[in-house]
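agent> Task received from the user: take the single chain below, predict its 3D structure, and emit structure tokens. No templates, no multimer pairing.
agent> Plan: (1) validate residues, (2) run structure prediction, (3) serialize to tokens, (4) report one or two observations.
agent> Step 1 OK, no nonstandard residues flagged.
tool_call: predict_structure(input=
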Amino acid sequence: MTNLIIASFSEEARAIEASHKLNELEIIGDITIYEMTLIKKPAEGDVAVLQADDATEGLRTIFVDSSLTPLGATLIRTDVNYEYDEQSDEEMEEFEEDIADERAKIKSATAEEKSKIQKKIAKLKDKRKDRIAELKEKVKEAASEVKTSVKDRKISKIRNNIEKHQKKIAALENKLQQVLGKDQKEVDQKAVAH
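)
tool_result: status=success, residues=194
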């Protein structure tokens, strides 16, 4: 399940610190993030986007609470698919309500008005149909992107692990050469002494 997590802070500095903490957690592999947006909303005034980052995978979030609550975060967690479905359902309900309102107007309308209302209803139905097609396409695209990003993320993680192990091997080889070099010096010193 993919989660939508909303963390709100009373201070901008704490929110920025929290975004850095989340990035650190993702870098070390404790969590993964699809997307993170930092928004500032003063009591009076417009909303301002301070930071908007597209990320990759977004699967593990068990470390988020323990990292952000000490910074004063108020967390809200919900399923992204549920929220997406809710928004889509609300849009479809609005289309249905608009169509129903126009149909109600037909009953008391004159012949000329009825024609205009019927055209408006047809346009609303077309908009609804287009929106449904658009939502279906977005679902397909999102599924494709998730599959691709998960694969890319796994490849990147494996490559990073290989690189870490190669560095460890190189460090161990250096230590081995140092030890072998010391042993060779001791042999050479003993040969000179005899």
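agent> Step 4: summary for the user.
The two ends are 74 Å apart (CA to CA).
agent> Done.
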